[in-house]
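User: For a reading group we're discussing how well predicted structures match intuition. Take Aminopeptidase N. Before you show the prediction, I'll give you the sequence so everyone sees exactly what went in.
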Amino acid sequence: MFPLDGNGGYRVDRYYLDFDWQAPKTPFEAATTIRATSTQALSRFNLDFAGNTLHAVTVNGAKADAARDGDELTVTPRSPIADGASFTVKVTYTADPTQTRHRDDAIEDYGWIPTPDGTVVYPQPNGSRLIFPGNDHPGQRAPITFRITTPGDRTAVANGRLVSRTRVPGDRLRWTYDSEQPLSTQLVQLAVGTFELVESEGPGGLPLRDVVPESLVEPTAAYRALTPDHLKWLEERLGPYPFHRYGILVGDTDLGVALETQTLSLVPKADLLGGKVDAERNMVHELAHQWFGDSVALKSWSDLWVSEGHARFYERLYSEAHGGDSFEAAMKTAYAAHDQWRKDFGAPAEPTEPNLFKRMRYDGSALVLYALREKVGEAAFQKIERAWVSGYQGRAAGTRQFIALASKVAGEDLEGFLRPWLYGSKTPPMPGRPDWVVDPVT
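Assistant: Thanks. Here is the predicted 3D structure of Aminopeptidase N, as structure tokens, for the group to look at:
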């Protein structure tokens, strides 16, 4: 779907992002330093980098030639890089925090998203290249150090742990964060605003840190206080939460899209100012992603059904038990529409680029998991789920690995069952539900 996303020939070991943020919608100076290891001899290599004004590129401290073609930045170092060598790339540029792109699916606008007093970022699916140059592919992961300088009246936040906050000349603050664990570029979060950091504890003393615009602290407090209950509910089904901390970033934007940015889920303010059932659905959805899509990363975008299907599955399962609609009724409705969705949006594991984040990847993919549970039984299904999140924790995995693991755990070959659900043009019969009917395709 995105044939130019990601780059071969090297592995990123760590990103260092330096941002001298100034004011809302105002360009600022930025630098990205990439520590990498070559996986083959390199006379040149590529980075994914879009928009922004490029200033200079160095490799191991020496100026390198750099050429831009669309989203591709081709770097030619002064001296070739040997196979297996460590090297450091530094790119300096002027960042434009108004740059966005648009998709006609659930994502809507992505990239830099201005807020009244700062900015948040929506990097999914491949918008991190609008923020910093890198290896922008969902299966490529690396830890990140963030160093963000802001005016003294602003707070900067990012994935992971706050390492330090220091005053610098000009009545400014430098905020340093460490992501702690590797993450995919589509899961990066970096926000600046007049935030209050609300700290609490989750199950087992897990540090919780909500990042909330000052005017929204009280109005969102009741729903945000539900996070420990959500964590406990998911841990009972999936095992331990896979990261060192968690929290919600309340997005002061008009976008209706929540996002599972790693350890700090972005949840639009409208979600937290509306009804409790809908608020909890969205909160549980993004929290479930910390297991599915974050800890276990996508191997490719065609594997998005694994991530979104699981998040929707547990969102609906939780909601049914907490005042929401019937899970079975929702799945029966999805079943009826499944052939139409296959025609319009592609089968669950065969999305097309324009339809990547359409209905099939959500309820349509949750339906595959529902069918699997009906096929193998509740006990075997729970074993599959726990084996998936524990066995692939901290790695990227996809459809092929899911089918193989499910077969192994269930003790039966499930490829013949799952492949028609995931790839077929027609929806298979639902196990145990002979009365369920698929609507005709129009």
